[in-house]
Design brief:
The protein has about 180 residues and is mostly helical. It has helices at about 1-20, 35-40, 60-75, 80-85, 100-115, 130-150, 150-155, 170; strands spanning about 30, 45, 90-95, 125.
């Protein structure tokens, strides 16, 4: 649900950017790294559902991702906040951040936003943080590879408007007439 809502907001912002462009108003979607999203909010975890068990579901579980981030912050081999996310009951917790770490996370994000603020042509998306840049690069690489693999098939649907003889549009699409 969270991912779907974020995609909806991105789609809305992309559409709105076209609407406000004639008024010389620019819009940038700031995509902060995962730590900012995760570590500055309360985390609530429900018991895992069998259908989403790691044995049957190949997708990375957000529970494991969040747990790994929390464990990395705490840096201990003792039971950690991240372990609480694997409980069989509903658990809520605030990430165990020191005041210094919270201030650093906020300062880094403010810097990342301010860095694009004075540009005449700011980016449509501003990716913040190493993990974010890496994941966007991987996604673009995958999309590019898939596009190239199926480009002939994609281009086959174009209709040749120059040839208006009956059935010619099917020939230009590679379909039998």
């Amino acid at each position: 649900m969270y991912c779907a809502s974020q995609w909806a907001i991105e789609g809305y912002c992309d559409s709105l950017a076209y609407e406000i462009a004639p008024f010389n108003v620019k819009m940038t979607i700031v995509q902060p790294n995962m730590e900012i999203n995760v570590l500055t909010h309360k985390i609530t975890s429900a018991p895992p559902m069998a259908a989403y068990a790691e044995e049957t579901n190949p997708a990375p579980l957000s529970r494991n991702i969040l747990s790994g981030i929390l464990d990395k912050i705490e840096g201990t081999s003792e039971p950690t906040a991240g372990d609480q996310l694997h409980s069989e009951e509903v658990k809520s917790l605030y990430p165990p951040l020191s005041k210094t770490m919270k201030e650093r996370l906020v300062a880094e994000t403010v810097y990342a936003v301010a860095a694009i603020g004075g540009h005449d042509n700011p980016p449509a998306r501003h990716i913040v943080g190493f993990e974010g840049v890496t994941s966007v690069r991987e996604k673009l690489k995958t999309v590019s590879e898939e596009l190239e693999e199926f480009v002939e098939c994609s281009n086959a649907v174009d209709i040749d408007v120059e040839d208006d003889t009956p059935g010619s549009q099917f020939v230009s699409m590679g379909l039998p007439t």
